[in-house]
Design goal:
The protein has 485 residues and is of the alpha/beta class. Helix content is 35%, strand content 21%.
Length: 485
């Protein structure tokens, strides 16, 4: 769907969308439209429960006196901030996508937030249809163009083109990777897909199995050793400024069967999205490079497939991580932390970053704690944690901070090695974070457990069902707030 900007005016065809504040009174162009329709819009409001509450909608078909084939009223509530503007835009898209209208004009009287409405609509318009060969036209969304009619159309257009459209692109880039099934997206093909970032000026380095063996990334390679697909680590660098980089680290398990500690088969197909952390990093790199950010950022992702086989890692195996610390692998399904351990130690040693943020679909325990609303955050640095919390609120990718404490670290003691890869069932998300902490030393670090937020079975205004792209906007905002100011 194309999003464009113009001065507010009633359309000659297609759909007319009018915003209505809480209380349900029509003013400005909405009142003019109501007059032209001999009061049909206000009568429709009076006849319904629609009262302008945020994101409520009311559709009026083919009102006499107006050229529009339909009028959609959309509530904007009491205070219309940028976040709500995005949600309203997304709500408008969803209400019209399958309506039959091919174009719509959204009359947006508030200066300053038209671009946000466009961004919300464009994020809601994401689709992944490449494997549907039998979809008929009538099942496809017809809406091809949304015109935002707003008094500051020029600056809204600029803001959308320079910023919003890049966000949409970057979030879509991440969502596509997350949606791809495991037979199509595996470490090699994923690494090839990430090379696309080179076109934006990102330097993309792919470490293959030989390189990883040479580096002695043994906890990462141990996860991959049961798979017919070789592991890859991809390092993506955007150097838009001098000084130590911000490091972004992502878990990229392209499919997680659990390995020899195999998962139950019900719902196992969901483990194709166990690479959501890496996709967030890739999407963030795309957004950051796309707007030529004045920031130095390094992204690193560990791509592996966790399979059971004759060559797979056994429960009880002891492996020596890149950092030199040894790990007793009690449960091969706690593989994400094994991948991240090597990535964290490596990125810190090689790039001496100012801070490190890792994202991972790490534990089912996090889903139990927070469901799908917030992602869990763990950090050894209050300033970094605060910046992440603020970024999350701003872009509606919310975070809730959990504790780290030596008492949780003790849960990882092993009889035979420096640590086990799992603790007891209780506090499973925290002991996983404590495990990672052993590989970061003094560097400011935050771990985001996105197990509950990388995928959704319930659409939200700017996030259709499926891959959410959670983390892309969060990281982009973090870099903007922390590195570019
Ligand atoms: N990828 C899973 C975590 C996960 C579970 C993400 C459900 C999304 C939804 C991770 O690799 C895993 O299997 N974790 C185990 C750890 C356990 C063995 C200590 C878990 O959470 O059950
Ligand atoms: Mn697992
Ligand atoms: Zn996993």
């Amino acid at each position: 769907m194309k999003v464009s900007f113009a001065s507010p005016a009633l359309p000659r065809s297609g759909a007319l969308v009018l915003t209505v504040a809480k209380g349900g009174t029509l003013d400005g162009l909405a009142a003019e439209a109501d007059n032209a329709a001999s009061g049909a819009l206000s009568r429709a409001i009076a006849a319904s429960r629609f009262d302008g509450g945020a994101k409520a909608t009311l559709e009026i078909m083919a009102p006499a006196g107006l050229d529009a084939e339909r009028v959609l009223l959309v509530g904007v509530g009491e205070t219309l901030d940028l976040r709500l503007a995005e949600d309203v835009g997304g709500t408008v898209y969803s209400a019209l996508a399958g309506s039959g209208s091919e174009s719509a004009v959204l009359v947006w009287p508030q200066a300053g937030s038209g671009a946000a409405a466009g961004l919300g609509a464009a994020l809601a318009a994401y689709r992944f249809d490449k494997y549907r060969t039998r979809m008929e036209d009538k099942d496809k969304p017809a809406l091809a163009e949304l015109v935002i009619g707003t008094p500051d159309a020029g600056s809204a257009r600029r803001s959308f083109e320079e910023d919003g459209a890049r966000i949409v692109d970057a979030v879509g880039f991440a969502r596509d990777f997350v949606t791809e099934p495991g037979n199509v997206l595996y470490p090699e093909t994923y690494a090839e897909g990430l090379r696309e970032l080179a076109a934006l000026g990102v330097s993309v380095e792919v470490l293959d199995r030989a390189a990883l063996e040479e580096l002695k990334m043994a906890t990462l390679l141990g996860v991959a050793q049961g798979s017919a697909r070789e592991a890859r680590v991809v390092v993506m660098r955007w150097q838009g400024a001098e000084g130590p980089p911000m490091a972004l680290v992502g878990k990229g398990v392209t499919f997680d069967t659990g390995g020899i500690s195999i998962k139950p088969s019900g719902g196992m197909e969901e483990m194709k999205w166990d690479m959501g952390g890496s996709a967030a990093v890739a999407g963030a790199m795309k957004a950051i490079a796309g707007r030529k950010a004045a920031a130095n950022v390094v992204g690193i992702v560990g791509l592996v497939e966790n399979m059971p086989s004759a060559t797979a890692q056994r429960p009880g195996d002891v492996v020596t991580s890149y950092s030199g610390q040894t790990v007793e692998v009690i449960n091969t399904d706690a593989e994400g932390r094994l991948v991240l351990a090597d990535l964290l130690a490596y990125v810190i040693e090689r790039y001496e970053p100012r801070a490190v943020v890792d994202l991972a679909t790490l534990t089912g325990a996090m889903v139990m704690a927070l469901a799908h609303e917030y992602a869990g955050m763990f950090s050894n640095d209050d300033a970094l944690a605060k910046a992440l919390l603020a970024a999350g609120e701003a872009v509606d990718e919310k975070l809730w901070r959990f504790p780290l404490h030596d008492a949780y670290d003790k849960m990882l003691e092993s009889h035979i090695a420096d640590m086990k890869n799992i603790g007891p069932r209780e506090a499973g998300a925290i002991s996983a974070a404590q495990f990672l902490k052993r590989f970061v030393g003094e560097t400011p670090w935050a771990h985001l457990d996105i197990a509950g937020t990388a995928w959704t079975d319930k659409a939200r205004p700017t996030v259709p069902k499926g891959a959410t792209g959670y983390g892309v906007r969060l990281l982009d905002r973090l870099v903007r707030d922390v590195c570019e100011s």
